[in-house]
Design brief:
11 strands, alpha/beta
């Protein structure tokens, strides 16, 4: 845990997941200001859009933040790497694809690289390619997931014992007990996404936030399995429509069309759940309020410490 905070120059071993085209400066900066590592997700945004978010984030915080590049999602890998170098962004997370070709360029400019992985094999390959840190993401996570469908609880210990670099746990984590559990499984910290949506600084539609607050443990759904894609979203009228079409027979082209970042923005920013979707991890069932980001991160650290100490004392007795 200490190694992660020292390596990334942050106070807490908590980083923000990339959020695609709904990424924004207010939440990214708030996470970094609160002691975590805020992250801008590039999604499918054009380089000038991403640069505007970078510049606004820099106005809001002088603390480190990261840029997430989803390799097989964006057509602008070269341009995004150039933005990282131009604006001296200290950390890049690479997801949804092979990070190997990108890592040497980033390392040449002193950038720390986090690779998002979903299996032991992928983790070992990312380590061999030079990744500094891994995010091991379980099937509980929101949005695009691996079709391997491994859960966080089983994935983290297997990856942690199979590599020699730090591992952050992602998927199903949104409170201090989840952080404590991740550390006990061998992780050095956590990446969170869904829990950050329901915070005061997050500039998402209140409908999104309230749906998370009122969600139960069974209120997420998987779409896309039939076409070799896996995405976890909250149950909404649009999600129901997607499932119905998929059950009747959906092509990959139809799926991509109906789950584009356009519909993501429609649901998350406009709050239109008839025509757009909202991503959510299974952790939604644990969300019961809308704190500030600082309250959330401080609370997670305090709760994790209490939980670890309580269990340690019970074992000693």
């Amino acid at each position: 845990m200490k190694y992660i905070t020292e390596q990334l120059h942050i106070k807490y071993p908590i980083i923000q997941g990339g959020m695609g085209n709904i990424s924004n400066a207010p939440l990214t900066a708030a996470v970094s200001e609160a002691g975590g590592l805020g992250t801008i997700g590039s999604g499918t945004m054009a380089p000038d859009e991403v640069e505007n978010i970078i510049l606004e984030t820099k106005k809001r915080t002088n603390k480190p933040f990261a840029l997430n590049i989803a390799i097989t999602v964006t057509p602008y890998i070269k341009e995004l790497v150039e933005l990282v170098i131009k604006h001296q962004i200290p950390v890049v997370s690479l997801s949804a694809g092979n990070p190997a070709p990108v890592i040497p360029v980033l390392h040449d400019h002193g950038v720390k690289v986090i690779a998002v992985v979903a299996s032991v094999k992928h983790a070992q390959k990312a380590e061999a390619a030079g990744a500094d840190i891994l995010v091991a993401e379980g099937f509980e996570a929101a949005g695009i997931n691996s079709n391997l469908e491994l859960t966080t609880f089983t994935l983290i210990p297997q990856i942690a014992q199979s590599v020699g670099i730090p591992v952050l746990a992602a998927g199903g984590i949104g409170d201090g007990k989840g952080l404590a559990a991740a550390l006990m499984l061998g992780a050095s910290g956590v990446q969170i996404g869904t829990r950050l949506i329901a915070t005061k600084e997050a500039p998402f539609h209140n409908t999104y936030k309230q749906n998370l607050v009122h969600a139960s443990d069974t209120d997420t759904v998987i779409v896309g399995r039939s076409v070799g894609r896996v995405r976890r979203m909250l149950k909404t009228p649009y999600a129901h429509k997607l499932r119905n079409i998929e059950e009747q027979g959906m092509t990959l082209e139809q799926y991509n069309e109906m789950t584009s970042e356009k519909q993501h923005v429609t649901g998350a920013i406009a709050g239109d759940l008839e025509n757009g979707f909202i991503n959510s991890g299974q952790v939604a069932g644990l969300i019961s309020g809308i704190p500030s980001v600082k309250e959330l991160l401080d609370g997670m650290m305090e709760e994790a410490s209490r939980q670890i100490n309580r269990v340690a004392m019970d074992i000693i007795r």
